[in-house]
Write a structure and sequence with these properties.
By secondary structure, this protein is of the alpha/beta class. It has two domains: 3-331, TIM Barrel (Alpha-Beta Barrel); 353-479, Rossmann fold (3-Layer(aba) Sandwich), CATH 3.40.50. The protein is 40% helix and 12% strand. Helix 5 (101-117) runs parallel beside helix 6 and helix 6 packs parallel to helix 7. The radius of gyration is 23 Å and the shape is globular. It comes from Nonomuraea harbinensis.
């Protein structure tokens, strides 16, 4: 391979964020970092549940100088550091319910401090989507709310909190995933709104984040017919170059959402999506948790081939490399101090809890946790009240298979607490809750998703998220502590 070919391959590799299984980086990742790989994205399977991944990230830096070491640490339901036990921080919906921007700044500064202590330098957060569609299957409690101004001010606070701790924010999902009813992990969602609605709703938080100096922005695999036609924004020059770079004036790093999602792989393929996203204006490509070394090499080869064929200008790769290099220089800037972790997550979760009605005092409580399948973005993170109510008997069951008479018999002469998550999205959950509270109007219903639906009777407690902090705050209230 000639020197120029090696240089081109290095530029291509420098656009990629790869993933790997396990709590130690495999040899191929270390070798690719030595050859210019842009960095990695960590997931829950990279954290062993007992020790933070500091040794893992140190090995990555030793191989790659100052690679981008990223993950999705949103607090709330989407956590990677606390994947095995649930996050100690409430999610965005809870913070939006409190609506104290300074509290949001403190929470994200604490998150940033934990990430920095682990050697992680880029957080794929905050979620800046305006969750205007209550039935959104992938955003929900990840959003600060459904009002653009509220989402904007908390997005700014989150960006400032993370970056004060020396961790780059990555505001997502541009140009907005909040008005969708399809999960882009599975298909291409469509945001069919006018340019005026897009600017007055979806773009408001992104514009504010740009003014606040966010170091990166993540693309969405959503089609906006008025802007991108049927093409996902991740692959659209109109979205990334025309709107984001041109109209909004953003000159930081643009990162693609995971290219192994079906919105990309089932339309143009992983390698094709990588080339098209770079051509559209992305600087770093998150490949997601599925591709291994063979697929990574295929993506690099496809990028190199596209340059040779003239479909991807070399200047586009050089521009991306310059932006990533500037980001890496910012990672190494001196003079930052990390705050102490001081329980701000639990304090925030306590402030977010909303109660309607008067829960009866707990007496030999039976807690019925109505199971709902997690989204792909969240994964199999523990949730529920059980660990925080040690005196309770906890039943976790699928709503469609629940035996209501048996549950009511078991709950006789005992307190009944029914825990749900996004009941508004699950008819079988609503049916089970309705049947239980019809017979037991003294029951308490705890909603750990968005509080869109509630039964006509029974005390009702909303946590705005299912993180560990949300659960503890709810249990404290129920127990009267």
């Amino acid at each position: 391979m000639s020197r120029s070919d090696r240089g081109l391959r290095r530029l291509a590799a420098g656009t990629l964020l790869v993933a790997f299984q396990g709590t130690t980086p495999p040899g191929w990742v270390l070798r690719e970092l030595e050859r210019g790989l842009g960095g990695v994205t960590l997931f829950g399977f990279n954290v062993d549940g007992h020790e933070p991944p500091a040794a893992l990230t140190a090995a990555l830096r030793e191989a790659g100088g100052e690679p981008v070491v990223s993950l999705d640490e949103e607090g709330g339901d989407v956590t990677r550091l606390a994947y095995h036990e649930g996050s100690p921080y409430p999610g965005n919906a809870a913070l939006g319910a409190v609506d104290d921007a300074e509290l949001t700044r403190q929470v994200y500064r604490a998150i940033g401090a934990e990430l920095a202590a682990c050697g992680i330098n880029l957080d794929m957060a905050p979620d800046a989507d305006v969750n205007s569609e209550a039935d959104n299957p992938v955003i929900g409690t990840r959003a600060f709310g459904d009002e653009p101004g509220l989402v904007a001010r908390h997005t700014v606070a989150a960006v400032e909190g993370l970056q004060a701790a020396g961790v780059a924010a990555c505001v997502k999902h541009f140009p907005g995933h909040g008005a969708t009813r399809v999960d882009s992990h599975l298909a291409i969602p469509v945001v069919d709104v006018t340019p005026e609605v897009l600017r007055e709703r979806e773009l408001v938080p992104f514009r504010a984040a740009i003014e606040a100096g966010t170091k990166s922005i993540m693309t969405a695999h959503v089609a906006v017919p008025a802007l991108t036609g049927g093409t996902p924004a991740t692959l659209s020059p109109a979205a990334l170059t025309g709107l984001l770079r041109g109209e909004l004036g953003y000159d930081g790093v643009v990162i693609s959402d995971a290219l192994d999602m079906h919105a990309i792989t089932k339309s143009v393929g992983l390698a094709g999506g990588a080339v098209r996203s770079l051509a559209a204006g992305a600087d770093l490509l998150c490949l997601g948790p599925i591709p291994g070394h063979d697929e990574v090499r295929e993506v690099i080869d496809a990028i190199v081939a596209a340059v040779g064929e003239g479909t991807l200008p070399p200047a586009r790769l050089e521009e991306a490399a310059a932006r990533v290099e500037a980001l890496r220089a910012w990672f190494g800037a001196p003079g930052r101090t990390l705050p102490e972790r001081n329980g701000v997550g639990l304090r925030a979760a306590r402030r977010a809890v909303r109660l309607a009605g008067e829960p009866a005092p707990l007496s030999q409580p039976l807690v019925v946790e109505v199971d709902t399948p997690p989204t792909i973005a969240v994964g199999d993170v523990p949730w529920g009240l059980g660990r925080w109510l040690p005196e309770a008997e906890v039943l976790r069951l699928a709503p469609g298979s629940a035996d209501v008479p048996a549950l009511l018999a078991k709950a006789a002469d005992r307190s009944l607490v029914v825990v749900v998550r996004d009941a508004h999205r699950h008819p079988d959950s609503r049916a089970l809750v309705s049947a239980l509270v019809a017979a037991r109007p003294d029951a308490t219903v705890v909603e750990m998703g968005l509080p869109v639906w509630r039964p006509d009777t029974a005390a009702y407690l909303a946590t705005y998220g299912a993180a560990r902090a949300n659960a503890q705050a709810a249990a404290e209230l129920l127990a009267g502590t």
